[in-house]
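A note from the maintainers: we've had questions about how concatenated examples are separated. There is no special marker in the raw files; a new sequence line simply starts the next protein. For clarity in this README we add a label.
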Amino acid sequence: MDEIDDSKRLSEEERLPFRILSARGIPVLADYGLEHAGAGPAGETIAVPAQVLVAEDGRVVWKHVARRIPDRAAPEETLQALQRLDAASSR
């Protein structure tokens, strides 16, 4: 099972009102500034771990970029960002 299938399954199981994009190896990483040049084991460019909320119109409305591999936004921080996005879209 690949990441796209995992993301779709999670969205369906949890009845999430948004889609999840897992972008490992996808050129869109450069568009979001999430490439770490030369940081892979063989000196290749790898993705910087990040959480990004993208509005339906394609705007990045919130982003947490890891400073170290295990760095992730707290769940509360992500939920607050989602709530702000939801409130803004309902205006």
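[label: protein 2]
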Amino acid sequence: MRNKSRIKELKECISDIIIATILSNKNIAEFHKIIRQRKFARYKKESVYVALSRLHKKGYLNHSPDGWSLTTSGKLYANKTLLFSYIPSPFSKNIPSNTIISFDIPGPSRKNRDWLRNQIKIFGYKMLQQSLWLGPGPLPQEFLKRLNELGIRENIKIFPIKKKGE
């Protein structure tokens, strides 16, 4: 049942892209405007208003006669939220494991540690011990950059595995 809803969602996204491409006449700004309109059209107006109201009450949004805008704290929140988004795996399913990741992230950084564990699972890594994982490599630059942005790069060791004689 879950796969059917995922397939339906994927088909809706593909149709949105096709429609937006045709209607935008290769204008990037128009393309993104159409995509946004089609995504919002899937939600009830009341749901959108409730979400806007909640973000406004939290201080993330301002409302003026010109429309909605992000506050400074809203921009910080958005950047932080993007930091914890996941990077799609660049590795195929049957790629050999040739990298070990070891990490020691302090207790107060639980959210960072949980993000790291979930992210390396997405890359196809398997746990050997609590903070020792084996999987494919080399790791993408985007991942290494994100580790720096989260401030946890210095807590992680990455070891490439070489075959004997290399």
